[in-house]
DNA sequence: TATTGTTATACTCTATAACTATA
DNA sequence: TATAGTTATAGAGTATAACAATA
């Protein structure tokens, strides 16, 4: 005899997707409040941080890392470029590519704002209960993400 | 002497918000694929399930539970009503309120589709590694959500 | 006065197809 | 032919303000 028990929730309010969304609402809200003075959206800040750590990264590689389609990525780079924070350069080796860099101003901006971001991150860690819980959460989320 | 160590990540790609979003992309993608035959968005399905478990719930209460602003909730209820899956009733006790119910057809629809949703949920649980990991994840997400 | 639902509006995010220039 | 970037566009999701009906 084979008894199988179904542990899936019967209420959407207990489902994984529901809580993912509710948690993200909180995190996004805190991020937005933190960055009000800088008029910066999450994706913009993420890209600036990415360029700080990976100067010269290919535009399409950056888009893939951040999980944004390359078609939607163009306007994102445009915005940072128009604000003088990032720039595109076409390498001689492959003229199809756009290599992305922070400008001097962009580097200063990252220095100025990354502390704010870490404060934001700290508040989220505090909500979770500590570093171990953060690591646990990220580990589990990593399993979900492709 | 007071040594304090900063455990916050220095890369956005290691941050909580980043992984929340990446995980949600996967979950949403799986949900969408699962529900293609029904032309149903996550919020619509969530509301149907909510009405199945809480018949007669006040429109604004349903909106709050699902984390959707009441202004944006109107079109959601409209859509389900126009498909004949849900209906609004004004209770005599308070004529400002809309009480929400599944129609007979809506009830059948939930019966038909909730199995699909549980399969979706099962796939996400499998990705996480099991029920315990799901419970862990939901516990952590609950702490983040307000 | 306060609450509930509603309308209008604007902005962001996401997805798809098609074009261009280069390889 | 294939790849990288781009444009255009449409659909969802979200946030805010203002209004009518009712309490």
Automatic annotation (TrEMBL), chains A, B:
Pfam families the UniProt entry points to: MarR_2
Domain HTH marR-type per the UniProt entry, residue ranges: 13-146
GO BP field: response to stress
InterPro entries named among the record's database cross-references: HTH_MarR-typ, MarR/SlyA-like, WH-like_DNA-bd_sf, WH_DNA-bd_sf
SMART domains found in the cross-reference section: HTH_MARR
Keywords: DNA-binding
Gene3D superfamilies xrefs: Winged helix-like DNA-binding domain superfamily/Winged helix DNA-binding domain (1.10.10.10)
GO molecular function: DNA binding; DNA-binding transcription factor activity
The keyword Cytoplasm belongs to this UniProt entry's keyword annotation: no
Presence of keyword DNA-binding: yes
Name of the protein described by the UniProt record: DNA-binding MarR family transcriptional regulator
